[in-house]
Amino acid sequence: MPPATGLLVDKIRLSKLMASRGICSRREADAFIERGWVRVDGEVVDTLGTKVHPDQVVTLSEEARASQTGSVTILLNKPVGYVSSQPEKGYPPAVSMIGETTRYKGDRSPRKFDRSHLKGLAPAGRLDIDSTGLLVLTQDGRIARQLIGEDSEVEKEYLVRVQGDVTEEGLRLLRHGLSLDGKPLKPADVTRLNSDQIKFVLREGKKRQIRRMCEQVGLKVVGLKRVRIGNIRLGNLPIGQWRYLGEDERFD
């Protein structure tokens, strides 16, 4: 299929194009393509790895859109001792906590829990084993991309308890001036709440980022809790319990 403008533009994988446009995640795109649910300039594309021009028109079938509408997103208050995704060293994954008995009784969603809600449910962002607080698990690739895509700017807010001397110079470096893995970190909003507690607002999520940042300024993290992702707050969701993201709730 030729590009709509006739310009010589490099082709890219269809799944990558769909993800970059926010249509769905790459994983969802591959699943939709395999099912024949994707059209490019009106023609069905059902071969994985197909490359297209960036300006071509991509549409989803009704079946694909219905699949997205039926996807669930779950908010969990993760306790210490659970990992975000794959089990490691005998520690269970957070998704293993999702069930009828652990659902928050104050959940306003009319959804009835079904085991199908666990299929393809994956964490949209990490929260390490020693940390607690808000963890998002979703079947919706659009939400996953919004929260953890390379260009994501969604804020994540943390309350962090530390050991060590919280100095003004240390706070300045935490706000902007540190690097991890050889790359400079994005500016962060960092506020001292009291002698041993700091509030962090980040717009990125590198592995154990806050703990590693604090180490660089002579602080040891002894407690870390995520309390907000975008517009969604942990609120009064009890630790170890979960609820559905409401239809009227948005992260941005």
Note the topology.
Elements: E1 12-13, H1 14-20, H2 26-34, E2 38-40, E3 43-44, E4 51-52, E5 58-60, H3 62-69, E6 73-78, E7 122-123, E8 132-138, H4 141-148, E9 156-163, H5 168-175, E10 179-180, E11 183-184, E12 189-194, E13 197-202, H6 209-216, E14 220-229, E15 232-233, E16 242-244
Parallel strand pairs: 8-14
Antiparallel strand pairs: 1-4, 2-3, 2-5, 6-8, 6-16, 7-8, 9-13, 9-14, 10-11, 12-13, 14-15
Helix pairs in contact: 1-2
Task: Describe this structure as you would to a colleague.
The model is unreliable at 3-7 (pLDDT under 50). The protein is of the alpha+beta class and 252 residues long. It contains 6 helices and 16 strands. The protein has helices at 14-20, 26-34, 62-69, 141-148, 168-175, 209-216; strands spanning 12-13, 38-40, 43-44, 51-52, 58-60, 73-78, 122-123, 132-138, 156-163, 179-180, 183-184, 189-194, 197-202, 220-229, 232-233, 242-244. It is globular, with a radius of gyration of 21 Å. The longest helix has 9 residues, at 26-34. Strands 6, 7, 8, 9, 12, 13, 14, 15 and 16 form a 9-stranded mixed sheet that branches. Strands 3-2-5 form a 3-stranded antiparallel sheet. A hairpin with a 2-residue loop joins strand 10 (179-180) and strand 11 (183-184).
